[in-house]
Amino acid sequence: xxxxxxxxxxxxxxxxxxxxxxxxxxxxxxxxxxxxxxxxxxxxxxxxxxxxxxxxxxxxxxxxxxxxxxxxxxxxxxxxxxxxxxxxxxxxxxxxxxxxxxxxxxxxxxxxxxxxxxxxxxxxxxxxxxxxxxxxxxxxxxxxxxxxxxxxxxxxxxxxxxxxxxxxxxxxxxxxxxxxxxxxxxxxxxxxxxxxxxxxxxxxxxxxxxxxxxxxxxxxxxxxxxxxxxxxxxxxxxxxxxxxxxxxxxxxxxxxxxxxxxxxxxxxxxxxxxxxxxxxxxxxxxxxxxxxxxxxxxxxxxxxxxxxxxxxxxxxxxxxxxxxxxxxxxxxxxxxxxxxxxxxxxxxxxxxxxxxxxxxxxxxxxxxxxxxxxxxxxxxxxxxxxxxxxxxxxxxxxxxxxxxxxxxxxxxxxxxxxxxxxxxxxxxxxxxxxxxxxxxxxxxxxxxxxxxxxxxxxxxxxxxxxxxxxxxxxxxxxxxxxxxxxxxxxxxxxxxxxxxxxxxxxxxxxxxxxxxxxxxxxxxxxxxxxxxxxxxxxxxxxxxxxxxxxxxxxxxxxxxxxxxxxxxxxxxxxxxxxxxxxxxxxxxxxxxxxxxxxxxxxxxxxxxxxxxxxxxxxxxxxxxxxxxxxxxxxxxxxxxxxxxxxxxxxxxxxxxxxxxxxxxxxxxxxxxxxxxxxxxxxx
Length: 683
Known about the structure:
Radius of gyration: 26 Å
Mean pLDDT: 78
Number of helices: 14
Number of domains: 3
CATH architecture of the largest domain: 3-Layer(aba) Sandwich
Structural class: alpha+beta
Low-confidence stretches: 185-304
Distance between the termini: 61 Å
CATH class of the largest domain: Alpha Beta
Number of strands: 21
Largest sheet: 12 strands, mixed
Shape: globular
């Protein structure tokens, strides 16, 4: 049962990976400060806010919104941090600053990654305040606790930050307001007061088996996640965690690791309801994000038949656009498949352990060890095990049937950024005027549900580089490394073409480094259509030239941003986002080039430069540990199906399948031709 706190009350926190959910009547700014044992914040780098949303162990929203989800991983907090203050502020308004007293009381709630509320606090009694410290997470010895604070400030953010001990509070407050002003046009519309009350009284019970959302640092502005960068699937190869903290990490954007202890309990799924799932009725697929009163209305679904669940509807999830609703729906499908499979596996494990225990009891008793009594006892134990497994499989098959039906409706409705290359939507493709919120990198599936594919959508802009592994895995049908490397290049070209296609003309470019010129045939679709910014760079001089230009661009952008003068960039500097494809790495790279590449991998995404390596990690062994951080910073993809991706939520090993163009299809060439034509007209 969730605790409803009053001002000053504290409550123990039994988990360290949590979400903090903020809801208000109007768009508000959400942030957090990290303080030491004395309650002092070390400086501006101890404040998470829309202009700097990520700090170790916490990520906040990048804009003002009526609904916020802050992702928190207390295990990733620096040891010097003893207090995390969650703040809410009203953005500056044209008619002067608002005050909380003129609005319905905002609410802050702490939930687990499964969406179940731990504690909540309604900030009643505010008057002239325009900024308030809502909650406080604080250490007590080795444990963390929650305290309802509700301390308001009529001076707004400046007064709040000054009280936190920041010497340049006014300057930081102005910076936050400027960051909010830049994103205010994208802020989430306000709810009505009646809606707020409805949401505040809603609670999720253990018997509610509707979809719940795991936190993800990947998309802070995404309903249902704490993050971005990401995506519902901020997953990666076992042992290749980038080491960046995240609430879902041991998952995510955090960079997730599969062995973080995030597996479901022995009873089953992440919420402990696996036993009921494996033997009970069909799962209710009414998604909380689709039906919560505080969320924007979703399209009306067809009436449910009397003898079964409602037929699936594409876009039947919360969101302010169809793209966002489809993105959230795909995320919900991913969660459902993960939960149903976890419940099935847990039920099977329970059946096996129960049978082994019963057989041990039979064998330990000399009277029943031999003879007909022993045989009967063994047969009975095996029959009970088979019955439990059959029940679990029936429940899983029922869930898979519903998910398959949903997939059959959703897949044809996906926009180009989310669609497979064989989707008819590409035949009506036109160069977009706005970039999408996410992009499809391929498909994911589990062994128990091999026919069902879940799109692997990742938020844009990419916050991690990609690495397409050209090595030959043990399960590969290819005997020759050259054949697999060519397929890896085709995968890279398909990804580059998709990124070009989903961005407005001139806002995204692709550059290629191919030191030995070995990938000329694979890059032909890009070069032939004129979609590249320049021909692929070859030789030592070509490698040095491209890396030098991109490194300089990142340096200039960083200096301009840090200096507060983003408009002071050189007039000839191309500020469009760039994807750098590097083939056959590390061949043709000297130590200086390797250092520049590592710099681009770490610093490039924030300056609009993204990295895509096509390489075999085994080829880099000669460099020793030098390249270890580079590999760990990239998300590894494979040109053939491979189960190297892991979700830290329930610990499944997901099989990834690349999004390749069907053999013989001309869709890639047609799309690239349109992209190149639009780029030419814009120049």
